[in-house]
Design goal:
The protein has 407 residues and is of the alpha/beta class. It contains 25 helices and eight strands. It has a four-stranded parallel β-sheet with strand order 2-1-3-4. Strand 7, helix 24 and strand 8 form a beta-alpha-beta unit.
Length: 407
Amino acid sequence: MQTFIVDDLINTPDGKEADRILRSCVHCGFCTATCPTYRLLGDELDSPRGRIYLIKGLLEGKEATEKTQLHLDRCLTCRACETYCPSGVEYGHLLDIGRYKIKEKIRRSLLDRGHRFLLRMVLPYRRRFGFLLRCGQILYPLLPRHLQKMIPPGSRSRNIRQDIYSRKMILFRGCVQPALAPETNHATIRVLNFLGINTVEISNESCCGALDHHMTEMKSASYFIKRNIDLWWPQVNSGVEAIVVTASGCGVMIKDYGYILRNDPDYADKAGKISSLAKDISEIFSAEDINNLKKHMKFNHSRTAFHNPCTLQHGQKLKDSTENILQQLGFSLCDVPESYLCCGSAGVYSLLQQDLSQQLQQEKVRNLVSGKPDVIITANIGCQMHLQQATELPVKHWIELVDAALV
């Protein structure tokens, strides 16, 4: 694709990066077939190709409008287009640049700014979010039905005893997962310990920064990123093998630290090292001999439907890793039609684009239950909570099933 990026931008890091990505696009249109919003709306400007043209025009000096902003907002950043793009266009990185640039030109409404500010002031902060969640659980009978669906029942945190081994990995806790589903990391600690691995949790670590980054708040996103790097670095120097992440949305973000801070002279090298150490829990399993684990498992022969989060299969390029592990361990997986499509959660998308999100949610649940499963499993806390709102079937992280099967 030929580009004519304006002079005052072309020599900046963002301008050079956008130019590189744009030139790799041959506008073939393969991306449109896998784009959830294009499938729903049928509007070219709500497809990756259309949004690429909008970003290209923005960078070439064309007028920025609220309509342009809306089409960029509607993107889920699911990155399915990247998986199926024959030219390898890095659409996700280009979209980030486009969103940052249009923020400089278009001021959002007061209501929209207030909504986004409240999300940013609550969700990334573990204590604030946990307190509000507990309040919601206490007041549950008094809440409207649509809010009740968003509030899971309370569960107690537990101290998990670990046998001591020489191998050690950091276990990232995240911001909302400890309050919404603490059993996910509890199960991870027990299963990894069974594999001879000790886990270290950093109590005062921050949100991974994804929420602020995707809402174009780079200053606060950088704060979260750098704070985590500083907190993890002593453990890195002590020889931890990996930073294990059980929420694939956080995993794809942490793996991008090196890219995001590539031009930061103080943090570029450290961020690159952190990104190389970040591993989805499925990657840890793939590198271990799990035959001994299988020998100690007892199954109840329930049918399971696996929802493969976009951040796992498209963002981290781990399309079949979890399914292969579960089948190797002996779990019975149902076929899920159109498994490449997003469930509509997409971070805070379900709170900012509720209509589109709910349409995708309903479609995804129909596909997941089509094989008549007894339980739905996934690999991301956002998807887990989003799907649970639309089905009576239990929705869990897959590591919980592995832990429950161990005897």
